[in-house]
Write a structure and sequence with these properties.
By secondary structure, the chain is α+β, with helices and mostly antiparallel strands. It has 3 domains: 106 residues; 84 residues, SH3 type barrels (Roll); 47 residues, no CATH class. It contains 8 helices and 10 strands. The strands form 3 sheets. It has a 5-stranded antiparallel beta sheet, with helices on one face. Helix 1 packs across helix 3 and helix 2 packs across helix 3. The N and C termini lie far apart (53 Å). About 6% of the residues have low confidence.
Length: 281
């Protein structure tokens, strides 16, 4: 849609996307919405609505009685990809505004309509994150002071990291460990300190990380112990086709994926839990 470095063009695109989002998710949009949210004139708002209708004919229907534009039932978005999470942030949040250009949040005190699981913050210091990131980016070794739960050790070790992975809860770095002589996953939040020398020469791992480079095909299906109606619900929930769902995952990330799906790990064990509940306030 043209040169995105032009601020005026970028602002115009944002307003057009706002029209489409509002029509699709809220079912309506009006000239006054553009004026209030973006601080533009009535003439500019009218021009934006006209431009949108030229770009997306049939997407808006004008309700003469209510004096507003409404999104058609068969409306197809052309300027953005609809996502529920985005709609929630735009239209159901008290704090999030839809664009840096907007003068006001769109939602009308609707924060009570959103809730999520509150998890403890698990991240390393900015200094640790920076050191590890630089090591991955430039192929450098990094010294880390690491507290290991599995090995029950706490001390310095040299890593040769090459990639990051997210297990759904926290970030870890995939690295060759000089101490263990193997590739391991190191949780960033367990690193007390990290040191990298940008003047040192790149030092790649001594061998390929086969588990990282290998892709596994995982085939999922509803539990056969469920009733037919329950299996049909699971099928629909996961978007399965023919009662099966196939996903591709790196071998190094396979157990994390299975654990997220509450399935036994590749060796049959169930991942141990690190926390216990002591009570509720």
């Amino acid at each position: 849609m043209g040169n995105t470095t032009n601020p005026e063009q970028w602002a115009a695109k944002e307003r057009l996307r706002f029209i489409e989002r509002s029509a699709f998710w809220c079912g309506l949009v009006n000239r006054s919405d553009l004026q209030r949210v973006f601080g533009v004139s009535a003439a500019q708002a009218s021009a934006d609505l006209q431009m949108f209708q030229e770009l997306c004919p049939g997407a808006l229907v004008y309700n003469l009685k209510k004096k507003r534009y409404e999104g058609g039932e068969s409306m197809v978005c052309k300027l953005h990809t609809p996502r529920l999470e985005e709609a929630m942030a735009f239209f159901l949040s008290e704090e999030v505004t839809a664009s840096p250009l907007m003068r006001e949040p769109i939602g009308l005190d609707m924060g009570a309509r959103l809730a999520g699981v509150v998890l403890p913050v698990r991240e390393a210091s900015a200094a640790v994150q920076r050191a590890v990131f630089l090591a991955v980016l430039h192929g450098l070794p990094v010294e880390v002071h690491y507290a290991s739960v599995a090995g029950k050790t706490d001390g310095w070790r040299t890593l040769r990291p090459h990639a990051f992975g997210h297990d759904g809860y926290r970030w870890h770095v995939r690295a060759w460990c000089e101490k263990n002589g193997a590739f391991r996953d190191f949780v960033l939040s367990r690193m007390k300190e990290a040191k990298v020398d940008l003047r040192s020469a790149p030092t790649p791992p001594p061998e390929p990380d086969v588990d990282w480079e290998t892709w596994e095909t995982v085939e999922l299906a509803p539990n056969t112990e469920l009733e037919p109606e329950q299996r049909a619900a699971v099928d629909r929930d996961f978007g399965m086709k023919g009662g099966k769902l196939t996903i591709q995952v790196r071998k190094a990330m396979l157990d994390y994926t299975l654990d997220h799906l509450r399935l036994p790990l590749t060796d049959g064990r169930v991942k141990p839990r690190l926390l216990g509940r002591v009570g509720s306030a």
